[in-house]
Design brief:
The chain is globular, with a radius of gyration of 25 Å. Helix 7 runs parallel beside helix 8, helix 19 packs across helix 20 and helix 20 crosses helix 21. It contains 21 helices and 14 strands. Strands 2-1-5-4-3 form a 5-stranded antiparallel β-sheet. The longest helix has 22 residues. About 5% of the residues have low confidence. A hairpin with a 5-residue loop joins strand 3 and strand 4. It is of the alpha/beta class.
């Protein structure tokens, strides 16, 4: 009984701080949980909904159109469903819902609905598309200067990296699709930009989109555009395919894109036409696709993160970027490069890193790869006042702890190489990352802003990792 009361107290404490709307009903269809975010979305008071039968609160719905009642009846989860209905005040509500059954002892005892305000999602879509358009449309009367990467910006002498660069340079000479595989932080976008800006499309737009950063409905609108009337407030607006016409569209982490959206992407690649969301007109496009995945493509296919037919369509030219833990000789080269870069940017006079810190760097397994190394150097150089040498004390306190927990598995014991394969190593690194994130989330009482600051990563990146590791907030 004490545990149940404690659980109820925890739930009631958490619910007000969750951004998504939460609505829970029991087996009789009566509301037992309803948070303030859901009340804001639906324009109701929490007290007016609690304890009442769902159809009494939303008379425009019935047992067939109410997602929570449907799930209560069938026991089947409904994912990302667009729903429109009227509340008690006659106001139209439009949401994107995920609804799940609550099952105990093989019996359905209720249903929980997680909702997002579709108007807010639509508004976000408009803002993102406007920003994308500003980036690629030239200013009137001015020549736009674009900062971009070329192969000269890719630093390293590792033979596998050199091989990847050679493949990238060959890709410049064609317009075929490219699939880049590399862990997070290895430089996939650097390769994508280099291929574009050294190819015959270099004078046309290059647009990059991270597929993991946006929900499916928003990503679809951004990619394909929208037609007036397709949903509340929708207007005629071109998507990224139209904006990138003649150029290159880089789809980062395509393995995070839903299979349904992948099917629509495959249709565009096969037919060279797009159709805006809610539209009926086919619009011809000439866009080169460069896609990337942060997990091995064959594993992604096996686990149904990438459609098999799409894989064979985009994997015309395949490039694999080696992780930094396999490029130990490049670590000193990269350190020197980043020190020179931040000396100029931060007006510092740093010469090198200390021997003990270099040894720690060489023994570290770098789960965040080159991006993580760059972050460490930048962070340390911001802490240096008059010293010319980066030492351990210049790094944030969490870095030394992180490095101690995640040292390299390469110990000099050759027998270890036979024992550890790539998949085991990746699982090991993922578990370490997951544990570190959990620790800092607990330390900061699950405050995303403070946790991302402590870990030295963006809020967006942290939220992606929380979702990736199924960490409950």
């Amino acid at each position: 009984m004490k545990k149940r009361k404690m659980f109820e107290h925890i739930v009631q404490s958490i619910l007000p701080h969750i951004e998504e709307g939460i609505h829970v009903i029991d087996e009789k269809g009566k509301t037992i949980l309803y948070n303030s975010a859901m009340a804001d979305i639906e324009g109701l008071e929490v007290d007016h909904v609690m304890g009442r039968y769902i159809l009494k609160v939303f008379p425009s719905l019935n047992e067939d159109t109410s997602t929570v009642l449907k799930v209560l009846k069938t026991g089947e989860t409904i994912k990302k469903y667009k729903q429109s209905y009227l509340n008690l005040k006659g106001k139209k509500i439009s949401t994107i819902n995920t609804t799940l059954p609550i099952i105990q002892d093989e019996k359905i005892i209720g249903a929980i609905e997680i909702a997002k305000d579709i108007d807010k999602v639509t508004d976000l879509s408009r803002q993102i598309i406007k920003l994308q358009q500003r980036l690629i449309e030239p200013n009137k009367g001015k020549r736009k200067t674009v900062n971009h990467y070329t192969f000269e910006d890719i630093i390293g002498k590792d033979k596998e990296l050199i091989k990847a660069i050679a493949f990238g340079k060959r890709a410049c000479k064609t317009s075929s699709s490219v699939l880049i595989y590399g862990e997070t932080g290895t430089g996939k976008e650097m390769f994508a930009q280099s291929i574009h800006y050294e190819g015959n499309r270099k004078d046309k737009p290059f647009i990059g989109q991270n597929c993991a950063a946006l929900p499916e409905t928003l990503l679809e609108s951004i990619l394909f555009g929208t037609s007036k009337g397709s949903f509340t407030g929708a207007i005629d607006r071109p998507g990224l395919f139209e904006q990138a016409n003649g150029g290159t569209l880089f789809l980062d982490e395509i393995n995070s894109m839903s299979l349904a959206l992948q099917a629509k992407l495959l249709r565009v690649l096969q037919e060279s036409y797009i159709r805006r969301v809610g539209g009926t007109k086919d619009i011809p496009v000439d866009v080169r696709i460069i896609a990337s995945t942060n997990e091995h493509p064959l594993k992604a296919m096996k686990e149904k993160h990438i459609r098999r037919d799409l894989y064979y369509r985009i994997n015309v030219i395949s490039i694999e970027i080696p992780p930094l833990r396999n490029r130990k000789d490049d670590i000193t080269v990269l350190i020197d490069h980043f020190i020179r870069y931040y000396n100029e940017k931060l007006n510092k006079d740093v010469w090198m890193i200390s021997e003990d810190l270099l040894e720690a760097f060489l023994n570290y397994s770098w789960p965040g790869n080159v991006r993580e190394l760059q972050n460490f150097i930048e962070s340390a150089m911001n802490m240096i006042l008059e010293d010319h040498v980066i030492k351990k004390e210049h790094l944030p306190s969490h870095v030394e702890e992180l490095m101690a927990q995640n040292t390299s598995l390469h110990t000099g014991d050759e027998d270890l190489k036979d024992f550890i394969n790539v998949e085991n190593l990746n699982k090991y690194l993922e578990n370490v990352e997951k544990n570190i994130i959990k620790k800092y989330l607990n330390k900061n009482r699950y405050n995303i802003t403070r946790t991302s600051k402590d870990l030295g990563i963006s809020r967006q990146n942290l939220q992606y990792k929380i979702k990736k590791h199924n960490l409950d907030l």
